[in-house]
């Protein structure tokens, strides 16, 4: 909270400085919208009729972050505020960049922006709203409306179609019918947008929406989903065994899970900060069952009765998820976590029958928190039975006063000192000795060493 207050103060000082020199200077865009909605803005931007060179002359420390577009960053203490010259944009080169930039007045600048709720200005000195596009009206109506002709706004920057969905679901608004019709008409153009820009918008849809699952359905309805994530389309209509998934098909299951992401957790998972990011959880949920359609078959279940099966879907889905995340230019660390969680998400079915060493290894894994939350959501988005989740939580509480993965008693040098030659055998002995240690089958390091000496040809503890 303090950081954004400081940024607002810095932005106001910049406005005051510009106005004192005879320039028009106003808060612009999202910060105006958010303040009018009673939300905390993510940042503050300033728009002015001062040219970039004049802004640079007026302030002692500036950075020309987008000077060709009239954007100069003004550094005020530790704050960096973007100051943009009012401009209009003529034509479009590639669905993102305009052919020509013309510096203009506030009204023309407002008319080039994407949606009415983002096209307002506010004078923090006079405390006066400047609204040339009926943004205040549409905030009151809780509707996302393109400024001017929607097809022209989306032709200028195709990403605006995704932004419309994001704003609608982040703010709990609807989309104006003409604006939504234009999205449906032009949805295919979204494939021309870079993966990096697409990922940013998709991530904000998944992590900032109150109900990301509803937003995903909306992406499908307007025709955007098949271009940004075509791998998800086969999930629509993919039936599942009703005894395990009474909620319906794979897509419905995934949407339910996404909607549950922001619901409160209980127990251990609520008492400490999770070891995963909001983006990691969102994409793990989104893609955890992407391997079901290609592995769907009909065969006997555990009870011998015929049903739909998805044998191997976790590993197939993990491979598919990795390719999707590579395409979205995900960081390697987050990609690794998401893929590992998807690959192992069916392991929770067996936790109550696992050997102690295997259960402790599961809990001690780097991605355990992510896998545990995925499992909780998976259950709540289907049969709602949390017995395996509760079992693991109870085991965690039981082990609260000792490390889940203790330091190994036996190391490679211990075995080499016993005359065991380096190679695969040492690795096998170390693995079995560590499992035995975690299962309390030996009381000390000395007892394990004695077992190894007594069983030189048999290393099955």
TrEMBL record:
Keywords: Magnesium, Metal-binding, Nucleotide-binding, Nucleotidyltransferase, RNA-binding, Transferase, tRNA processing. GO terms for biological process: tRNA processing. The keyword tRNA processing applies. GO terms for molecular function: metal ion binding; nucleotide binding; nucleotidyltransferase activity; tRNA binding. It comes from the Bacteria. SUPFAM superfamilies: Nucleotidyltransferase, Poly A polymerase C-terminal region-like. Residues 27-144 form the Poly A polymerase head domain. Pfam families: HD, PolyA_pol, PolyA_pol_RNAbd. Residues 279-352 form the HD domain. Its cofactor is Mg(2+). Residues 172-232 form the tRNA nucleotidyltransferase/poly(A) polymerase RNA and SrmB- binding domain. The keyword Cell membrane does not apply. Belongs to the tRNA nucleotidyltransferase/poly(A) polymerase family. This is Poly(A) polymerase I. The lineage of its organism: Bacteria, Pseudomonadati, Kiritimatiellota, Kiritimatiellia, Kiritimatiellales. The gene is pcnB_2.
